[in-house]
Amino acid sequence: MKRILFILSAAAILLFQSCEHNIDADLENLEGVLCLNAFLITDSDTNFVHVSLTSRTKPVPVPNARIELSVNGNLVETVTDCYKITYKARWQEEVYDDDWGWMWIEKSGICTDTIFGTYMLTSKFNVGDKVRVDVYSGSQHVWAEDVAPQKIENPAVSHTYTHRTMKEIGALLEDHDRVSLDVRFDDISADANYYRMAIYSNYYVENKSFTMLFPEELDLHSKNEIMDYARKNLNHPVFNEFDDTVEVFYLASDLFDGWSGYEDYSYRGNLILSEGEPQSSGESTDLDALITDVENTFRVFSDNLFSNSTARLTATVWCNGMIPDNINRPPYDDLFTDEELNMVGDYYNWHLTVKLQSISEQQYYYLRAMNAITSSSYDEMSNLSGAMKIPTNVHGGSGNFCVTTTTIVKVPILDNYRPPFYDTIYK
Fold it and tell me: In the 8-state DSSP scheme, what is residue 293?
């Protein structure tokens, strides 16, 4: 029993090794406390501040707060209205008709939704600025400030894209398509610095095919005016001429598949991104079994391993089944040449965006705590470690306030890539 308790206690120490940077929360007096949360970004046209009152179930949005933004001691913006989203919408409405009685009709229009508790700031601030936000609601006043960190300059990103055909794909994930990224950048200063890396995808497929023109829809009748219109307005027109008329085909395109969003990339084996995680080798121990699921979910890291030198981050993005091995040759007659047929088919585009952020120590320890609280180990060990210690730098209330500086690197993986044709009877 003593050995088990020792292992659990050691795991708790590893999970919360940054406790000295945290502030214990008084869980008995959290009802109705004004809470300020904001992760602001330098040189951005829009930033958002979230204001709520704490409760034992869920935060209560505050719709009537006053937000003041100060930069380097000067008040630059005051906001009192919650953020509004305007969009086009369609809906059905039940109406009464004298002849038909009650019936549903479709309507459309512009709708506006108010996001209560969220306030938008539009004033910009730059690297090195001291940024402060004051929030007033009722008799409560909370404030927080942070200094915008330095920017990561000239990062280098290289990649290797590995495509496996269907014949090569096996049962293991490693056999599927993947992109291996190598990211390098210099530590921004000799002081202690903190960073975060996110990867986003932009993927879409464009289908190109020859489509027939219907001249009557354009009020075109004579052979000459049809051909003249096609040459001036259509992409690569192809003519099939008869005595007094002509068929026209042109190259048309259509986006039929696409998505964009955050990539949950793999970083295993990279010591910098695995900071704080177990790095055992050989036989696993009881301690490893307890804490191996505490992953760096929010992808934050310090410069402990590359202080005043160069960071090297390696990551893998999986892309299972995105790109087919080949496509069918379209069943056209002899109307099109081989060169024209080589224009048709599905074209694949896939770009990755690497977002590197320099963040404050406050945000670093906050997200480190969130890494632990989102793991199953926290649920299993909370009775031993006590309540999660979440750092806060908000004066007069609760919450977190951070300013980050972002560097974007776009990595083209596939640009208008078209798989080769099958060898068929149409070749």
Answer: T
State pLDDT tens for residues 271-307.
999 986 765 444 444 544 444 567 888 999 999 999 9
C-alpha distances in angstroms, 182 versus 71, 396, 412?
Answer: 36, 44, 14
d(CA 195, CA 358): 5
Read off the tokens for 316.
């893998």
Using CA atoms, how far apart are residues 210 and 238, in angstroms rounded to an integer?
9
H/E stretch holding 52: strand 47-53
pLDDT in tens, 260-271: 999 989 998 899
Please report how the helices 376-385 and 2-15 are oriented relative to each other, as an axis angle in degrees rounded to 10: 110
Tokens at 411, concatenated: 């990595």
User: What would the DSSP string read from start to end of 36-51?
Assistant: EEEEEETT-S-EEEEE
DSSP letter for 112, please.
Answer: E
Neighbours of 388 (CB within 10 A): 15
Contact 228, 222 (CB under 8 A): no
In angstroms, rounded to a whole number, what is the distance separating the alpha carbons of residues 136 and 78?
Answer: 11
Token pair belonging to 102: 């009650």
Would you tell me how many other CB atoms lie within 10 Å of the CB of residue 425? Answer: 6
Q: Give the three-state DSSP class for 66.
A: strand
Residue 166 binned pLDDT confidence (cut-offs 50, 70, 90): low
Q: Are 22 and 390 in contact (CB under 8 A)?
A: yes
Give the other-Cβ count within 10 Å of 70's Cβ: 19
